[in-house]
């Protein structure tokens, strides 16, 4: 990790029976604001999920508070760093699910796949009997994934269960190894797949982020960059920020080459969405971008840039 990181970025989640999530929200919001944190935390009856950033002291204050809650005593988190503030504000939101798959009664506290440590992952995915599945969305897969990983071509996690059902015959009799950014999608994905009767179901413990942190680049089976949902856009080995920017119109990560395209206009369009937007859409995005530029000239940050 960076020796003196200006911002510590903490990604966390924990599945637990958490019926008091609504009344817990104000207390959690107060702790985050007192600690000077920015980011988003989601609360639901099934637990907590989110990413926040701030000082070392602020992150430690939040973790101490969460670990003091009986439901989250076993909560684990992953840390990386950022040179600039990766979030603009602090949000604590109430949800039906802390990661939305849309399959009722999928409960990772009752059934889940076998965890595989990052340093054991290479051996598993090198096995010819293993099918390696990237459970993330298509735009995340596009900028980086593991060698020989299958892309389900999903635009949201809600589409993943149907993809599994459609490929049931191809998956039968195989070892199924799944991965995602930080591990939370795979908690639900492996739980769902296990309910369908598949037995050898595995997932990467700590997700891609933990793998990139622990596995030396020269031994790595990861190719490309890992998309992250903050202003860094993507990170690579050692969790170092990569050279990507985000299209503010469609949220697709862009390479330096793509930003040189005639179809790329900051805040308005990019090669991935240019043909999908109407003139009215682009006019609306142009006005938002104008407001962002005005705020930048005043030394402020416009919330529309988030």
TrEMBL record:
Signal peptide: none annotated. GO terms for biological process: tRNA modification. Residues 126-220 form the Rhodanese domain. It is an enzyme of class 1 (oxidoreductase). One of its GO terms (molecular function) is transferase activity. It catalyses: uridine(34) in tRNA + AH2 + O2 = 5-hydroxyuridine(34) in tRNA + A + H2O. It comes from the Bacteria. Its EC number is 1.14.-.-. Keywords: Oxidoreductase, Transferase, tRNA processing. Pfam families: Rhodanese, UPF0176_N. PROSITE patterns: RHODANESE_3. SUPFAM superfamilies: Rhodanese/Cell cycle control phosphatase (SSF52821). Belongs to the TrhO family. Catalyzes oxygen-dependent 5-hydroxyuridine (ho5U) modification at position 34 in tRNAs. PANTHER family: RHODANESE-LIKE DOMAIN-CONTAINING PROTEIN 7-RELATED, THIOSULFATE SULFURTRANSFERASE/RHODANESE-LIKE DOMAIN-CONTAINING PROTEIN 2. This is tRNA uridine(34) hydroxylase.
């Amino acid at each position: 990790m960076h020796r003196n990181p200006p911002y510590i970025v903490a990604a966390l989640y924990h599945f637990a029976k958490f019926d008091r999530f609504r009344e817990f929200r104000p207390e959690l919001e107060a702790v985050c604001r007192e600690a000077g944190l920015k980011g988003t935390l989601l609360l639901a009856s099934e637990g907590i999920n989110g990413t926040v950033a701030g000082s070392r002291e602020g992150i430690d204050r939040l973790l101490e508070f969460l670990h003091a809650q009986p439901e989250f005593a076993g909560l684990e988190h992953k840390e990386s760093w950022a040179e600039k503030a990766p979030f603009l504000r602090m949000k604590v939101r109430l949800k039906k699910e802390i990661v939305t798959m849309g399959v009722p009664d999928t409960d990772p506290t009752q059934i889940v796949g076998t965890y595989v440590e990052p340093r054991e992952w290479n051996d598993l995915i090198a096995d010819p009997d293993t099918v390696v599945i990237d459970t993330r969305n298509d735009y995340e897969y596009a900028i980086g994934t593991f060698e020989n990983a299958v892309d389900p071509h999903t635009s949201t996690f809600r589409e993943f269960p149907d993809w599994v059902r459609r490929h049931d015959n191809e998956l039968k009799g195989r070892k199924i190894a799944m991965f995602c950014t930080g591990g939370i999608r795979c908690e639900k994905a492996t739980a769902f797949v296990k309910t369908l009767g598949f037995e050898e179901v595995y997932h990467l413990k700590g997700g891609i982020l933990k793998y990139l942190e622990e596995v030396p680049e020269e031994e790595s089976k990861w190719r490309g960059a890992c998309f992250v949902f903050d202003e860094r856009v993507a990170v690579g080995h050692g969790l170092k920020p990569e050279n990507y920017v985000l299209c503010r119109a469609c949220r697709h990560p862009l390479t330096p080459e793509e930003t040189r395209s005639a179809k790329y206009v900051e805040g308005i369009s990019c090669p991935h969405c240019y043909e999908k937007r109407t003139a009215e859409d682009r006019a609306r995005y142009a006005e938002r971008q104008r407001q962002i530029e005005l705020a930048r000239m005043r030394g402020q940050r416009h919330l529309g840039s988030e």
